[in-house]
Amino acid sequence: MSKDTNDMLFEYIKNTIYENQIEPLDISKLPEDYQKLGAGISQFCIWVQETKQFSEEIAKGNLEVQPPNVENVIAANLKALQGTLRHLTWQAEQIAKGDYNQKVEFMGMFSDAFNRMTEQLHDRTEALANEMHYVSEQNESMRRNNEMFQIFTQKSQEYIIIVDARTGESLYCNDIMKELLDSIKGTDEEQFLGKNGMLNHCPCSSVNTKAQWEYKTGSGSYYSIQSVYIYWDGRAAMAHSFANVTVDKEREEMIEAMAFKDFLTGNYNRRFGMELLEKRQEEQNLFSLGFVDIDFLKYCNDEVGHERGDQYIRNVSDALMAIPTEKTVCRVGGDEFMVIMEGIEAAQAEKYLRQARASIMKNNIGGSQKIPQSFSYGVVDNTDTAELDVSEMLSNADKKMYKYKIAQKEKLKKFFHDNLDGFVDDRLEP
């Protein structure tokens, strides 16, 4: 083969491989001995060109492209792939329509993955169908329950309302609740349904689905509320049943106050004082404890009566309440008081008690009958009694008070002799 013939055939084959369009091979230009070879090469290159164009369309996803004719044996496998892909496309369409029985048995790893996918789709679809059926049954059950709920609650004497859990919109009210809302249209309605209203304080949620709680409105009313997180007509909601318990609450608070308050003075009583004293000891913050005993109370009761004696007790209480520091005054006996003063040491507490004592010594009980007023006191603080229990601490203050009372006995008699028009009585004992 001459060099020119060789170059021409080589260029023709190269162009067939690398170019999309080539000029047909001019066989007449080949030597006669090479024209049959040229014809074969020409047919081969035509098939290569057809196969290239066909594969490009397949690569683009065009499975409808017309394949080369049956004589093009080079494209045979590619045409088989086209048939397979068209069949897989049809199977995918069937799966999309809900036919999960489609199987692929002839593509190795792809077959395994495809078949697992269809099995999973089948299982998930079946599970979803079961769940939808269950939800449908639940919705129907809830609808029937809601109907029964309305029937039973319409005539209830408790206020019942159902609100949207997200927006607070009222979804249902029984008759008595409707009447209440109708009667408080406007500003008062905000206490129930407003942005900062009572129902927005409900502790219920999708996690904590039930709660029993109390709420005090800005106007001082108390409500006892039972709340449940439910679904109402397909919406997450809160069902509230509540009653106005203001009267009961006020009675309860009054009883509680009576349990901790002294009726005569309005001060706290011994029970409250001892509990507070224990709490202060546990906290270990600085405080002082003053123990006060009223002087001459028996004398007052005997000379001018218990009504004036009660006034004497109230006078002492007022003087102690006027002490200018943070304190708690408790009447712990007929003529005894306990004063817990926060944040001060015993020396400062003694100063305050001395001033309170002086303020009432200038007064008297009984009008024309001159009855002196005074009290004795003892003070301790927790700087050196932190390890004592409250009974020991109170006992120490009591002992100091008694020493003070004995020490002041004669001074008191002289003071009242000099300041109450010379009044003195041998029966006058502090």
Q: Can you walk through the features of this model?
A:
This protein is an alpha+beta fold and 430 residues long. It folds into 3 domains: 3-93, no CATH class; 154-248, 2-Layer Sandwich (Beta-Lactamase), CATH 3.30.450; 261-419, Alpha-Beta Plaits (2-Layer Sandwich). The protein is built from 12 helices and 12 strands. The protein has helices at 3-18, 35-59, 76-96, 109-153, 175-183, 190-193, 246-260, 270-283, 297-304, 306-321, 346-361, 390-419, and strands spanning 159-164, 170-173, 210-216, 222-232, 235-244, 268-269, 287-295, 327-331, 336-342, 364-365, 371-372, 374-381. Strands 2-1-5-4-3 form a 5-stranded antiparallel sheet, sandwiched between helices. It is elongated. The N and C termini lie far apart (150 Å).
Give the helices and strands, then pairings.
Layout: H1 3-18, H2 35-59, H3 76-96, H4 109-153, E1 159-164, E2 170-173, H5 175-183, H6 190-193, E3 210-216, E4 222-232, E5 235-244, H7 246-260, E6 268-269, H8 270-283, E7 287-295, H9 297-304, H10 306-321, E8 327-331, E9 336-342, H11 346-361, E10 364-365, E11 371-372, E12 374-381, H12 390-419
Parallel strand pairs: 6-8
Antiparallel strand pairs: 1-2, 1-5, 3-4, 4-5, 7-9, 7-12, 8-9, 10-11
